[in-house]
Amino acid sequence: MAGLWHEVLRTMSQPGASPDDDLLARAAADIALRDHPHPPADAEVVLEIARTEFAAVLTYRQARAALDSARRPPEGGSAP
Known about the structure:
mainly alpha
C-alpha cells in the first residue's frame, strides 16, 4: 500500500492536478479497512471517507470495487 499512498500524495501535491477517482477510491478503501475493522467497512464508509478526506465524489460502484480489491490478498503472496 505504500505505493498507493506515494501516488496519492504525488498527485495531490501537483498544482492544478485532478487525482483519478479510482486512485482516491482505493485510498479511501485502505483507510476504511484500517479504521473500521468491526463492523467491517462497507461501500458507504468508503464513500464518506472519500468525500471528507479527499473531497472526492465517487459512485457506489467505484467504492464497492475499491473495497473488494483492497480486501484481496496481494498477488504473489498471501495477506499477513
